[in-house]
Amino acid sequence: MWGRVPATFAALFAAGLFAAVGFASDEDGVPTPPGPPGGTEQVAGTGSLTTLFASNNQFAGNTFDVENIGALPITISSFDVNCTTGSTTTFTIYWRTGTALGFESAAAGWNVMGVDSNVTCNGTNIPTPVAIGGFTINPGEVIGMYVDLTSYPSASLAYTNGGPTTFMNSEISVTTLHGKGNPAFTGANFFPRQWNGTIFYDIVPVELESFSAGE
How deeply is 141 buried, as exposed, middle or buried, from its count of CB atoms within 10 A (0-12, 13-18, 19+)? Predict the structure, then answer.
């Protein structure tokens, strides 16, 4: 007779993310044997999703939607953006619950995810790191995002005409929406425009109780 199987285990087993007999993998891909009976295993990893780096337009911001389409929570760790060369720039990234569409012109309902005031743009169509993160998105959750080059016109945020376009992998999807002028929210709207960038994230570890034999 088997002991209790936690709901998290059953859900992950059904999603094909965990097998009763198998190995977890470290980040270097070397298999790690399962722990002893009654022990635990962790499911974890890292990932990224890039839209594109093919700018033919630019201004001060972009809005887009991000959805967690996987079975585990993800935590955003950082971003790459597409910005023209210039002096040291400041980026602010905002988020809101639900879609950004229809909410791009007013600050109500938006929250600051973070500010990076030490960004040196690498030039058009060359990824530029932005050290903002720490925000967790749960499975099935949709959030609106707004990337704003707060110090515009120290540089410009480069993006691409067209869309809306959805980019996805097995964990997240990004749907592009608006280009934005300056200042944030009250600046001009341009639709549709495609955000150029990459979202880097961690797949949040989930501790799983292993099977144990009952008496």
Answer: middle
Assign domain 47-203 to its CATH architecture: Sandwich (2.60)
What would the pLDDT profile of 13-59 be if each residue is shown by its tens digit? 344 443 333 333 334 444 444 444 444 445 479 999 999 999 999 99
Q: Domain ranges for the chain, please list them.
A: 7-44, 47-203
- Between CA 39 and CA 59 the distance in angstroms is 53
Reported pTM? 0.78
User: What Å distances lie between residue 194 and 65, 75, 93, 172, CA to CA?
Assistant: 11, 23, 16, 17
